[in-house]
Amino acid sequence: MCLIVFDWQPDATAGAQPHGERALLTLAANRDEFFRRDAEPMHWWTDAPGVLAGRDLTGGGTWLGVSRDGRFAALTNFRSPAEMRADAPTRGTLVSAFLSGERIAPMDYLERVAERGHRYNGFNLLCGDFTRRELGWYGNRADAPPALLEAGVHGLSNSLLNTPWPKLVAQRDALADLIHADEHPELDVLIETLRDPRIADDALLPSTGLSIERERVLSAAFIETPEYGTRSTTALRVTPNERGMSIQIKERSDDDGSHRIVRPGSFERAFDFDIAS
Description:
Pfam families: TANGO2
Largest sheet: 7 strands, antiparallel
CATH architecture: 4-Layer Sandwich
Number of helices: 5
Protein name: NRDE family protein
CATH class: Alpha Beta
Radius of gyration: 18 Å
Oligomer: single chain
Organism: Caballeronia grimmiae
CATH topology: Penicillin V Acylase, Chain A
Number of domains: 1
CATH superfamily: Penicillin V Acylase, Chain A
């Protein structure tokens, strides 16, 4: 997962309007990966029935998912090619372990991860529990401990939280504009907005140790190269209601589950369920 923008409103409450008040969480995310790396699109896991997520078939973990009891986690890699270690453990299991393991507070889990964070290649990890109204972040390349996030619109790419890379700023602003115009934008609108192939100006590109040509390609929200690119886009909304909360989530993928890569992606899966209070 290489680009996540989200609006977090922990004080959101159910209201009298048909869709309630402002959503607890509105999120859109792109997963960027090599096309040769097999993955399953979003589904309910048979070996962890409460987990709804895609699955990396190489490492066994995932990049973004939710659980029936209201947990959420997502991960982006931190871009630092000079620091990459081939023997580091897979980062995707940090997401799946939170969703499928013992239910603990997001900060407790992130603090456990931070104790062994040095073993992994660079990453950013979001962990949330909607029933607790808590969403935390930890980056193992940050000079800071895990922290709960304040209300507002945030973004993660392949650097630390809210680092102003061009595509993060553009997509974070786009999300803020969408929510200003409609507090509950359609999931399809969130997906289409994030599938933006525009390249940033050279003067705005970060310097992460890659060639300028590679930095240009990766500056797009929707990445397209012959061997690497945006594999799927996910939109998520969590809304308080009289029964507790509802989760709506949709994934648009270039893989229908048969591991055939078809560009541009048009295979969709959508899920809608309630979390008990």
